[in-house]
């Protein structure tokens, strides 16, 4: 690196102003931070149109009532996922704009209400393919600003308080717990609504989601100090073009994005596994929901353990161990021939992936450019996540339908996961050499 480049980076970093370094939190303050931060993340992820409470029922509604084939369902989710692919733009909006001068609270209040109204409108309309496609597309776009407010706030606290690993655990649990409950409740709800009229089923689903969004808006109104007062707001002081340039020149972003792209591009998961369990293993809707709940629920104890482990083991070791193990995550699926066997295999598969997932989120928080935490976390956790997920579904359904079936999709997934290991060599050593609590010094 030349002296000129170093000088440019220093000037660019000075664009962001954080008035005073925050005082380190006491044990009691940290507990309250985890409590309120976890509550906000849980509410948000229950209401998420892409992964929340409505996800499974809508998927089976499209499959069973509108008779979509696997690839058609993948295409539907691809179109609805367009705002997810552009989620970093919503994160950038969060970083640059403060509604009514209220920062993240303003985003939660304004777009919590807006998204709730969109959900309510979908619920009152006749649930045709077009209504679901357009309605969920708009709801997904509005929801991204709510998600970016929470993700930006949590990652800012993790950086400023030097607790990126513990914030990774909180972030991961706050996402995973609602996913577990959504798959359990969503799968059962899908079975219960199977005999109801389509309009009644849609009304129940979307009005429930609308109520969750209004609860999120109320959370912003209440303003728990333990959460919103835990970090100083970092506001950019120059033109937005400079912030874009600063993000593009920030090298730590690139390895994180590449790893996330490979980690979420899983041809054998998602739609392929859903159709394999339903058509080949003869699983019910509830069993498919239960498989996802067991799989994701098995991550949670690992995430809790990571919160303690990251304070004792450097991130570099956790990354290599976690993803070395994760290469073999999908192997049990090659030996499963019944729905019950698949449910049993979900436990070791979840445990195997837990360390890698938590370590990657830890790395993402450490890699955020100052003042652009919302942009980075939405790029990492939403845009790249869903881009890889949806195109993994497309590739997987192509293999499943035409080129070798489910086993070919599993083998392809194992190969993709193995490609993560050489990418780890590109991560800056200074970011991963420390344990939690020493991240700022790094």
Outline of the structure:
This protein is mainly α. Helix content is 74%, strand content 1%.
How would you sum up this structure, described in words?
α2 packs parallel to α9, α3 runs parallel beside α9 (164-193) and α16 runs parallel beside α18 (339-367). It is globular, with a radius of gyration of 21 Å. The relative contact order is 0.16. 74% of the residues lie in helices and 1% in strands. The chain is built from 22 helices and two strands. Strands 1-2 form a two-stranded antiparallel ribbon. Residues 1-21 have low confidence and may be disordered.
Please supply descriptive tags for the structure shown above.
two-stranded antiparallel sheet, Growth Hormone, Chain: A, 442 residues, disordered N terminus, globular, 22 helices, 2 strands, mainly alpha, single chain, 74% helix
CATH topological fold name:
Growth Hormone, Chain: A
Query: What is the number of domains?
Result: 1
Assembly type: single chain
Number of helices: 22
Overall helicity? over 70%
Total strands: 2
Mean pLDDT: 85
Largest sheet: 2 strands, antiparallel
Instruction: Give the strand line-up of the largest sheet.
Output: 1-2
Question: In the CATH hierarchy, what is the superfamily?
Answer: MFS general substrate transporter like domains
Q: How much of the residues is beta strand, in percent?
A: under 5%
Choose one word for the global shape: globular
Q: Terminal Cα separation, in Å?
A: 19 Å
Stretches with pLDDT under 50, minimum 5 residues: 1-21
**Radius of gyration using CA atoms only:** 21 Å
**Strand/helix succession:** HEHHHHHHHHHHEHHHHHHHHHHH
What's the CATH first level?
Mainly Alpha
